[in-house]
Amino acid sequence: MARIGMIGPGAMGQAHIERIHTVIAGGRVVAVSDVDQAHAQAVADRIGGTAYASSKELIESLEVDAVMICSHGPAHETDLLACIATGKPVLCEKPLTPTADAALRVMEAEIAGGRRLVSVGFMRRFDRSYRQLKTTLDSGALGAPLMVNCAHRNPSVPDHYTWDMAINDTAIHEVDIMRWLLDEEFVSARVDQPRRTSLAPARLQDPLVLVLTTASGVRVSDEIFVNCQYGYDIRCEAVAERGTLSLADQNAIDLRTSAGASNPITMNHNERFFQAFVTEVQEWVSAVDRGEHTGSTAWDGYAAASVCDAGVQALTDSGTVPVQMIERPAFYA
Length: 333
Ligand code: ISE
Prior knowledge:
Elements lengths: L1 E6 L3 H12 L4 E7 L3 H11 L2 E2 L3 H6 L5 E4 L6 H11 L3 E4 L6 H14 L4 E4 L6 H12 L5 E9 L11 H18 L3 E7 L15 E7 L4 E7 L7 E8 L2 E4 L8 E3 L2 E3 L6 H4 L1 H17 L7 H19 L4 E2 L11
Parallel strand pairs: 1-2, 1-4, 2-3, 4-5, 5-6, 7-10
Antiparallel strand pairs: 7-11, 8-9, 8-15, 9-10, 11-12, 13-14
This protein binds (2R,3S,4s,5R,6S)-2,3,4,5,6-pentahydroxycyclohexanone.
């Protein structure tokens, strides 16, 4: 049984606790820490675990075998470095770190430690429909991919959502899943700013379109529309030489009545990616038990952060911004 310590049990963290204790086998959250100590205590009381006064104490605790980091991005680096220093596997929610420089420091520490310990919570890699998309593209039946058109729509965003988060909190999911799907790196980013919706808070340019180009020239466009009102709508259409393929609607059934055809629309990422989260966390917990690494690596976190750095710059600079990245270290081959 993997004894897990969770840092930052907010909405995402508590959804993870719920699945670890109800649907996932082989793990239990035994410790929590949070910047809000009273909150940590309340969660600990609810799950019968221990609340630690700091994330450092939680990471170093002998009752913790592995760590989940669900706090906000800027807090990740210190905790990741502490996990690496104590040799504990860690599943870190995205972003690994808010900038590529910070991700590089995490990678360097992991490489120096000689063992892959860091997994990044890019849950879409575990989604059945994305996996099918990849299997079909990889089979070569459609020829080479040429373009991918993505859309990432949220009904609305919370008050703390800032202008740059459209790239490094929202589009980062497409950045990662497209690197994984196309199996190559991005070389440049551009942002187009269409007509602004009147329904977004004044601080946000919404929607926007992030246009990315891979090393081989595949063009990925990602519509980010985070105040679309009607639902949590994730789309992806790959256009290849001999055909196209898209994510289907996520409903198991189609409802048709005399009033017409209708389907429920999911409203948040937990609903839309429920199965992906379960598979991701189950695979991680099982790997922790076997002493193995699973899922995306610190390299993936670094690569995504590098593309997002270029994307954030493209929000304010007109034109195309090159993605700056180091060569992939042999450790992550
Ligand atoms: C949030 O952090 C997520 O990860 C969601 O999947 C994404 O849709 C949302 O825009 C982000 O803020």
